[in-house]
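Appendix B, Record 12. Input sequence as logged:
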Amino acid sequence: MLHPRQFKVNEAWIAFRLNDEPIVTATDGSFHCFALMDAASCYMLGTELYPVAMAEPSMLGCKRLLKTGESREHQLPRTLFVAREQTADMLTRQATRQNIEVVSVPEAELLVFIGEARQGYSEHMRGRAR
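Logged structural output:
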């Protein structure tokens, strides 16, 4: 089972969908939020919104997400973990082009990293709906 203690900061990042429910806007439609997190610190490196009609962020969105992480940490990781249940073909291609090993794992193995971020985001969105 994976755990943050197994990693050094910037050794591995995790890409995942942050929201359970679509983010609905009045003018632009509904979106999902794809997030990038450092595995050791569980620090959120960046997010990218993409339309619900798409299975994953666009190639440009994936490039932007990795660039955001790189600019915050001044380096790219050696490994990128992605949930097997998440479509991430474009992100995988972009990461591979940048010599990042992409490892697909069951989402349940990532919950120790991403669970708190998802819960906090969900609570934040529920608070905004009030």
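The chain is about 35% helix and 30% strand.
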